[in-house]
Amino acid sequence: MTRLRPAMTSDPAVRVRGLRRTYGRGPAAFEAVRGVDLDVPTGSITALLGTNGAGKTSTLEVIEGLATATDGEVSVLGLHPVADRALLRPRTGVLLQRSGFSGDLTVRETLRLWSATLTSPRPVDEMLALLSLEERADVRMLALSGGETRRVDLASTLMGTPELVILDEPTTGLDPESRREVWRVVSDMRERGATVLVTTHYLEEAEAYADGIAIMHAGRIVRSGAPAEIAAGYPAAISFAHVPGIPDDLAAVRGVTRENGRTTLVTDALQVSLSDLLAWAAHNDVTLGDLDARSPSLETVFLAIADGRDPGGLSPLDAPNLREGALR
Fold it and tell me: CA-to-CA distance for 239 and 187, rounded, in angstroms?
């Protein structure tokens, strides 16, 4: 298949500026999205992550053309997602959390039915092969596993060869093998020139596969960039089964916690602190059971944001809103 367009062009496939969405009016009004700016580069995989009640779904609905913004500007493939929806539909593919396909149809019948709704669909047999569904083609949908059903959903989403693909929690509830298969297909889409905007609760997936990440909290994007950029500046951690006598002044260690039978050292220099710890253990003939040393990760950042501890995120003035968003 030919590439849809050059990867990572200067014009983003999705451009959002000052997006706001408010539910209700008057004193009871709730602003779910509070001035979001977001670029999804063409030819990239961009992960939109969010804490509970962050406004992620409200943002996606506007991008998908399913809802209008209260304020702000949104451009999708250079078009307005609502006013130009008829032009955008053949160029986009959207994977919702639930497809709603009939359980009585076979996989092949389902894809044939969906094919009839598209302008230029890819052949059904090609989609069966792409999603490793050939052996399940004549099985009814209700007899499929969760992972197989999700692959049928993905096959229907990709059948029209979309330029932009929006995937809402594509791997939720799937086993590790099925999750890996879904991401293989998603990565292949990117290699063929498509742009992917994906939401996921699996932070390790976003860290491993996304080119860029945006983290929403309390209606705003508080962190964005490449995975390594987002984690930069956060401390590393060393943990192990608790043993008595661990000194609190090990090199580069900024804090020590002891709970649930484990000791955790927070450090700005992982190698330096780990070397000092191992030297102390050797000198004192101490075995460090279940030793685990980790560089700062996306999970570190995400949890700090969720707990209101992000050093580079929102200001103290936003603390009431952090708590409000976490409850919604």
Answer: 34
According to DSSP, the β-strands at 12-23 and 71-76 are: antiparallel
Residue type, 70: T
Do the Cβ atoms of 238 and 272 come closer than 8 Å?
Answer: no
Cβ-contact 49, 199 below 8 angstroms: yes
Give me the pLDDT at residue 53, please.
Answer: 87
Torsion angle (degrees, nearest 10) of CA 182, 164, 222, 270:
40
pTM (2 decimals)? 0.81
Give which of 246, 248, 237, 251 is closest to 281, Cα–Cα.
Answer: 246
**Could you read off the pLDDT of 73-100 as tens digits, one per residue?**
999 999 999 999 999 999 999 998 777 7
In sequence order, which ranges of the chain are alpha helices (DSSP H)?
Answer: 56-63, 85-88, 107-115, 124-130, 146-158, 176-191, 203-209, 227-231, 270-283, 298-306, 319-326
What's the confidence (pLDDT) of residue 320? 33
